[in-house]
Amino acid sequence: MSYDSVKIEFDSTEAVKAIQDSSPTSSNFALIRRIQYLLMNVRSWVINHLPRERNKTIYCLAKKALVTNQ
């Protein structure tokens, strides 16, 4: 599967910085490395910080999924 363009929004400034600043082999976190690896196959991508207060819908869905899986 390939994409021409991807937009990623995180409510964690640390995650945004880790994905932007390091190479796929330098991160200690498997999820960060996986995201970087996947982005290598995308022609154009952008990653932004989105404060949790502005992303209430996603926060509620994630919280619901967490409760459902317990």
Walk me through this protein's architecture.
The protein is of the alpha+beta class. The protein has one domain (6-68). It is built from 3 helices and 2 strands, in the order E-H-H-E-H. The protein has helices at residues 13-21, 30-39, 56-68; strands at 5-10, 44-49. A two-stranded parallel ribbon has the order 1-2. InterPro entries: RNaseH_domain (IPR002156), RNaseH_sf (IPR036397). This is RNase H type-1 domain-containing protein.
Which short descriptors sum up this protein?
two-stranded parallel ribbon, 70 residues, 2 strands, RNase H type-1 domain-containing protein, nucleic acid binding, RNA-DNA hybrid ribonuclease activity, alpha+beta, RNaseH_domain, single chain, RNaseH_sf
Give the proportion of residues in helices. Answer: 40-55%
User: Which structural class do you get from the secondary structure elements?
Assistant: alpha+beta
Mean pLDDT: 83
Strand order of the largest sheet: 1-2
> Low-confidence segments, ≥5 residues, pLDDT <50?
none
Large-scale geometry: globular
Elements, N to C (H/E): EHHEH
How many β-strand stretches? Answer: 2
Share of β-strand residues: 15-25%
| Overall number of domains | 1
How many angstroms does the end-to-end distance come to?
31 Å
Report on the biggest sheet.
Answer: 2 strands, parallel
**How large is the count of helical segments?**
3
Query: What is the CA-atom radius of gyration, in angstroms?
Result: 14 Å
Question: In a few lines, what is going on in this structure?
Answer:
The protein is an alpha+beta fold and 70 residues long.
